[in-house]
Design a protein that fits this description.
Structural class: alpha/beta
Order of helices and strands: EHEHEEHEHEHEHEH
CATH superfamily: NAD(P)-binding Rossmann-like Domain
CATH topology: Rossmann fold
Radius of gyration: 16 Å
Number of strands: 8
CATH class: Alpha Beta
Number of domains: 1
Bound molecules: NADP nicotinamide-adenine-dinucleotide phosphate
Strand content: 15-25%
Helix content: 25-40%
Shape: globular
Number of helices: 7
Largest sheet: 8 strands, mixed
Distance between the termini: 32 Å
CATH architecture: 3-Layer(aba) Sandwich
Strand order of the largest sheet: 3-2-1-4-5-6-7-8
């Protein structure tokens, strides 16, 4: 069992934190507002701890659970405090009107976040194709991930498996472009053809 740090205290921090706590890991909640971090910590599990925003997180895995539009500013606030960390980028960099992605052409939110993270950190894209309320339902969902560093990817794969998810490696970090498009696709599907937000992507293998 290990300590996993989450930056953010919103819907996804709550959903992912809930699964982490149920899996028996310790969750460290880090918020700009200590009262919000404490409120989420109280909701998750008795051993949940809070961290100081901008200070070195306890966990070797740090989940960045903030809007994409603020992710680079958050990374700047932490600076070298994220040295050597495995940073899980869960963001969906979608335009407010859902007309597309707001990332630079030929890049992804994850690749931009990697540029803003310390060189010694490793960014892994994961969780962005899963809706928070579905994640909270404790099903064995498919968890797609993309990353360049093999060790970071292996670490996150074990972590995802420990949460009762099925890790599915889609390739290098450039594949985050595809995962982010899939995140937008899921929103479009929920609002249109599916007619419900209770949906999840599933891949049949073999
Ligand atoms: N909702 C979903 O189902 C879903 C699914 C997949 C991916 N995502 C992605 O997950 C991320 C979080 O989504 P969410 O639904 O949890 O959003 P949310 O409920 O709005 O929470 C976002 C959190 O980000 C932090 N934050 C907001 N503005 C910030 C700023 N200027 N600087 C630093 N931190 C800031 C806040 O935490 P503090 O106030 O505590 O600092 C806030 O609680 C987003 O990137 C979203 O695209 C969401």
């Amino acid at each position: 069992m290990s300590t996993i740090s989450i930056i953010g205290s919103g819907g996804m921090a709550t959903a992912i934190g809930g699964r982490i706590a149920k899996a028996g890991h310790t969750v460290e909640v880090v918020s700009r507002d200590l009262a919000k971090a404490q409120a989420l910590a109280d909701k998750l599990a008795s051993g949940t701890i809070t961290g100081t925003y901008g200070a070195t997180p306890v966990g070797d895995i740090v989940i960045l659970a903030v809007p994409y539009t603020h992710a680079l500013a958050v990374l700047a606030d932490f600076g070298k405090a994220l040295d050597g960390k495995v940073i899980i980028d869960i963001t969906n960099p979608v335009a407010p009107d859902l007309s597309g992605l707001i990332t630079p052409h030929g890049s992804s939110g994850a690749q931009e976040i990697a540029k803003g993270a310390p060189a010694s950190a490793h960014v892994v894209k994961a969780f962005n194709t899963v809706f928070g309320h579905v994640l909270a339902q404790d099903q064995r969902l498919d968890a797609f991930m993309a990353a360049d560093d093999a060790h970071a990817k292996a670490r996150v794969s074990i972590f995802l498996e420990s949460l009762g998810l099925r890790p599915l490696d889609v390739g290098g970090l450039q594949m985050a472009q595809t995962l982010e498009s899939l995140g937008l696709m899921m929103i479009g599907l929920a609002k249109n053809g599916a007619g419900t937000w209770d949906i999840a992507l599933h891949v049949d293998i073999g």
